[in-house]
Backbone:
């Protein structure tokens, strides 16, 4: 059985937990191996992942490429501008053709519907490597990082400060699936998608949306933020000014739980959403978080290709 991973809900709580356990175990099992060496079982030997990028990427591109190598497979990396997709070939036709060549497709796109359509018309699994709506692979890595550092996920309180964006949407979804409350601090006009909040609440997710950053961060176990201007958005002084009260600085971190962790998907805009003293400080887990993109995505690939559960 193969299956797509466009959002965390596609795997459900059980699937997400299965992938997290696999990611943690596989990371431990390859300790000491050179980064380019395959895992001992090379479970995706003979498999190829095609990656389509409509937007820039460092982590997603390299971590998926290395993930496939470590699983024993290979990759083809394409920028949409150099594909016929960039000249108007449809997503449906692209999906049908790529399905004849490769075993799975990852796409990073500005329009979530393109990922949905790709999955609809492809005969192979499609993985969301970031859309305007969500970033589920990032949150798999975030969850793995919290699990490794705190020993559990359930019940820990997350505080999001800043823009109501794609990364936040996947955190909200994760909270509702795995049972952790998410408090959100956004300036008016930059809220997350109301439909995504409603879906999460319908699943029982505990969500607070507030204009008060102190209320949001007070006692939180995990403090998380992201760029105020996502890829494809216009740089707007007005937006930056509205976001300033939601900047994560040392004073804000001091309002969280004493052992609160700081997460950021990167790339960071130091001096905007977060200051150096926090992102480089003792509670920042950003380098483990970035590394875990690799391990978490190996589990995602195995789940999509029917090798897990
Ligand atoms: N966090 C993340 O997705 O990074 P890239 O944009 O570098 O892939
Ligand atoms: N919200 C950011 C995440 C980048 C990894 C963006 O969409 O640009």
Residues:
């Amino acid at each position: 059985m193969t299956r797509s991973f466009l959002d965390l809900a596609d795997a459900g709580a059980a699937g997400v937990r299965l992938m997290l356990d696999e990611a943690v175990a596989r990371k431990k099992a390859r300790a000491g191996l050179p980064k380019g060496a395959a895992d001992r079982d090379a479970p995706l030997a003979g498999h190829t992942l095609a990656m389509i990028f409509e937007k820039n990427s460092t982590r997603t591109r390299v971590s998926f490429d290395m993930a496939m190598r470590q699983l024993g497979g290979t990759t083809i990396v394409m920028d949409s501008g150099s594909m016929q997709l960039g000249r108007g070939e449809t997503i449906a036709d692209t999906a049908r053709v790529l399905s004849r060549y490769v075993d799975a497709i990852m796409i990073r796109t500005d329009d979530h519907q393109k990922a949905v359509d790709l999955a609809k018309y492809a005969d192979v699994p499609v993985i969301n490597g970031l859309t305007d709506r969500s970033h589920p692979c990032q949150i798999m890595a975030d969850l793995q990082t919290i699990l490794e550092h705190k020993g559990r996920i359930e019940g820990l309180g997350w505080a999001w400060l800043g823009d109501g964006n794609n990364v936040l949407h996947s955190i909200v979804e994760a909270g509702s699936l795995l049972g952790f409350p998410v408090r959100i601090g956004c300036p008016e006009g930059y809220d997350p998608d109301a439909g995504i909040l409603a879906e999460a609440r319908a699943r029982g997710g505990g969500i607070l949306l507030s204009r008060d950053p102190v209320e949001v961060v007070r006692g939180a176990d995990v403090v998380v933020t992201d760029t105020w201007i996502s890829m494809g958005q216009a740089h707007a002084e007005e937006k930056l000014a509205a976001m300033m009260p939601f900047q994560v600085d040392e004073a804000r971190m001091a309002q969280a739980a004493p052992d609160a962790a700081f997460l950021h998907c990167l790339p960071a805009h130091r001096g905007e959403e977060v200051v150096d003293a926090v992102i480089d400080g003792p509670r920042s887990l950003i380098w483990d978080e970035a590394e875990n993109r690799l391990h978490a995505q190996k589990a995602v690939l195995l789940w999509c290709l029917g090798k897990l559960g």
About this structure: The CA atoms of residues 8 and 174 lie 7 Å apart. DSSP finds twelve helices and nine strands in the chain.
